[in-house]
Design a protein that fits this description.
Layout (H helix, E strand, L loop, with lengths): L2 H15 L25 H6 L7 E8 L2 E5 L2 H9 L1 H4 L8 H5 L7 E8 L2 E5 L2 H9 L1 H11 L6
Antiparallel strand pairs: 1-2, 3-4
Length: 150
C-alpha cells in the first residue's frame, strides 16, 4: 500500500471515528447498549411511593430518544402528560458530576427529590457528599447543563 493510500485511510478513519460529534453524549443517560432511561426504574414512583421501583416493559413510553418503563398504566399516563415533572434532572446523569463540569452515570438507587425535582447520583458516597451541600451543587449544575454533554 502506498503512502497516499494510508493517508486516505487515516482521513476516513479520523473523520468517521474521531469526530467530536461522535463523542457527544445523549441528553438522557442510558447505558451504552441500551436505550433504557433511569435504569428501567419508574420515575413517577419516586414521587408517588417515595422509593425506587423497577418498571415493566409492558408499560413503556419513548421520550427524548429513550425508553421509560413504569409500574402501571397510571404512572405511564402521568409521565406522558408531564414528562418534565418526573424525568430526572440533567437527563439522569449524576447531579454531582454535572456540578463539577463532568458527566457520570446516575444510579437510580441513589436519588433525592428536592423542591419537586428528581436527582440521581453516581453511588452512595457521592450521594452523601451531594446531600451535604445540594443547593450549591444544584446551582453549579444549572450553569454547566447541558454544556457537559459536548
Amino acid at each position: 500500500m502506498s503512502f497516499r493510500q494510508y493517508g486516505f485511510i487515516f482521513l476516513v478513519f479520523s473523520t468517521l471515528f474521531l469526530s467530536p460529534s461522535l463523542f457527544a453524549k445523549n441528553k438522557i443517560y442510558t447505558s451504552f447498549f441500551s436505550k433504557t432511561a433511569a435504569g428501567g426504574y419508574d420515575v413517577v414512583a419516586y414521587f408517588k411511593a417515595n422509593k425506587a421501583q423497577k418498571g415493566h416493559k409492558k408499560f413503556m413510553f419513548s421520550y427524548k430518544g429513550a425508553h421509560w418503563f413504569f409500574l402501571n398504566q397510571e404512572n405511564q399516563k402521568a409521565f406522558e402528560a408531564q414528562p418534565e415533572k418526573y424525568e430526572p434532572q440533567y437527563g439522569g446523569y449524576c447531579a454531582y458530576a454535572v456540578s463539577q463540569g463532568q458527566t457520570a452515570k446516575g444510579d437510580p438507587l441513589h436519588w433525592e427529590i428536592h423542591e419537586g425535582k428528581l436527582y440521581f447520583n453516581y453511588n452512595e458516597s457521592i450521594h452523601k457528599k451531594w446531600l451535604n451541600d445540594k443547593q450549591k451543587f444544584i446551582n453549579q449544575s444549572i450553569k454547566n447543563w447541558p454544556g457537559v454533554l459536548n
